[in-house]
Amino acid sequence: MKNYKHLTLIPIVLAAMSIVPVAYAQSKQPPPNSAGNSPNSATDADGHARVVQACSAAVGELKASRILIEALDVENASLRSRLETEKRLTATLGELNETRKSETESLRIAITAKNETLAARDAVIERQDKLIGTLKAKRPSIWRRVGDILIGAGAAVILK
Question: pLDDT-based confidence at 42, cuts 50/70/90?
Answer without folding.
Answer: very low
